[in-house]
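User: Fold this, then the next.

Assistant: Folding the first:
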Amino acid sequence: MAVSLHRLFSYVLGALVVTAAAHKSAPSVTSTAASSTLTGIAATAPTIGPSHQVGRLPALGWNSWNAYSCNINETKILDAANLFISLGLADAGYEYVNIDDCWPLETRDASTGRIVPDPSKFPSGISGVADQVHALGLKLGIYSDAGTNTCAGFPGSLGNETVDAEAFAEWGVDYLKYDNCNVPSNWTDAATPPDNDWYNSNSAIRYRQMTAALNQTGKPVHFSLCIWGDANVWEWGDRVGHSWRMTGDVSASWSSISSIIAANAQHLDSVDFFSHNDMDMMEIGNGDLTLEEQRTHFAAWAFLKSPILLGTDLNNLNSTQLDIIKNAQLLAFHQDPIVGTPATPFNATASAPSTSPPEFYAGKSSKGTHVFIINTNTTATKTFEFGNVPGLGFGRFRVQDMWTGKNLGTFANKFSITVDTHDTAALLIHRA
């Protein structure tokens, strides 16, 4: 439902928006290094990168959109923050409480040019909410758009990057989700930019302007590029932000979750410290996902090192769902301080069939070697040879179930496990 609402608003408003942010006047910050080989706006676009005081590890938190859409207010935001504490989510590492679209009034302040928080929704203002979130030891996120309006029609930040970044910093904002709706036609791109240089495309420059504006405030802000996988963002995203959306919105269905895993699996070389492919907000607690599909949803986001932003009314999570999203071993892999790279697909055996998404993944952490197995079909026994796991070789190995912490035994040369329909096995492996 979220994708249809966002895109519907975007398309309707996009048809009405005139090119209010012309190329000659849109940049609100100056370049730190112009290139003589570039022309037009690219020649003067800012090149400064994102702060490395934040964003080293993929974000853990919550976002309001999937739970409440536009029906938000400070009571709901602060309720989520307090539930981080009472449900043990903060202890598990979750820290960002993020406000999505629909938080401001529909027009900017006439004298300051600033976006104005809707006083009927946020009577304490964003700064007042930030103070209360910070008092809990958590961080606050806000939402804007690299277009003239947000997806729901509220003021966007294109052409107003400096004034908006200054406001966000003054309010104590720690995280910015920056969407991609209502882009004027003169800020769009041809099918392929000159020299296939997507970093200097109009799309990238819209985001680079906000990077520079955030940097100028002096306050480190985790910058999330909600660019829907456009403009080959995985090629340049780490030069502009800390994470970047790889697709349109995920929905609470197996087909949506599996398709996003498949799409992301093609671009895992871009994932490392300060550099994360964002597979979108979580749907655990929403829709009709089976228990096994919710486990896979969480596990895949964890082992592929996507940001994990919960997207439901936290009051409604049951104990089983809480156990999934607080699983200590999967979160430890996701947040590993030594190894920044994700698990990647490998061929389990010489005769293993090809699937979409891939079923077998292997990765390293500071605790050892891990294998993750997604069953894309009905319940079946899955087998892999230790010698096919990168870095293992053949021999005898101890295998531990990461979901339960249970030791499964010692095995020679290969390992087999029964995996339920659409479930994921998560294994930690050490040489015996």
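Now the next one, as you asked:
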Amino acid sequence: GRIPLTRIKSIRENLREKDRLKDYLEKHPYNLAYKFLESGDPDLGIHYEPMRNYLDLAYVGTISIGTPPQEFKVIFDTGSTDLWVPSIYCSSPACANHNVFNPLLSSTFRISGRPIHLQYGSGRMSGFLAYDTVRFGGLVDESQGFGLSLREPGKFMEYAVFDGILGLGYPSLGLRGTIPVFDNLWRQGLISEELFAFYLSKKEEEGSVVMFGGVDHSYYSGELNWVPVSRPFYWQLSMDSISMNGVVIACDSGCEAIIDTGTSLLIGPSDIVFNIQKIINANQSYSGEYIIDCDAVNTLPDIVFTINGINYPVPASAYIREGHQGICYSNFDEGAGGSFLSDSWILGDVFLRLYFTVFDRGNSTIGLAPAV
């Protein structure tokens, strides 16, 4: 079960190039991104996703749903658990330029009639729960529960190159009473090991991959270092510290971190991130993004994330990104207020491009090793 992932232009880049970014960021402040709402009323079928911020999602893979198969580009997202795609019944403008699922064309489709609402940072996805065969990477997952959207979450989806989301978080993070895709692969005996792994290529579009049921050792060097999942909800672990030149600059008495393929940046508590931006001399631009001198790539030291006693350096070439027109941006961003992120970090694709990552559900551990 190996699915190639293609790196796409993110919504943020699309908005920036259309000069719509400032307007968007003012309307959707980033601090909504990760307030997890335990609320929501299960009887009404309303389930609050951990608030995702889809501005920066950048890796998509192809799946198909139904018999005969209908194809969709989805984000394989370890920071959420549900699968959803747009439906032919969706009237949002966002659905007009995406692949939509037509239940009438599938002989294996079953409707549950259960309405679902997934609340995201930038709006709500309203739809209904259905069941059908989902195929990807040679795997055939039968009677998979998934969401069909009737209304897309917010205007931002109009700028998205992907159609939907395939979540790989723990079941406790997903819709109650549904079995997530990964759990079905395991229950149906489709994979030999209860794990999956991501390799995100440092190169341009091609070369990234998500693999299910086994680990291809050619994607990393040295040994995998295994870290226990500290809370089986997100793929969350305990981090020792964050340092630069041997001096701790964040997470000084330890903190929590989430390994998240559905976030592209390094996200932390706002006051701490603000301090890191100062240390690396990144300044806020009019659109609210942090801009940094491109030459700093050659002079700034690594920022080292220490996890379970092992150092994971992130060099300046990774925490600085070059946008169009030769402007460089900091890859650190501040997350939500609220209790959840008070001392938590989200390690997104910036980290995952450097470190091959195995998500082992069977042992509730995360394996990390330098990516080749």
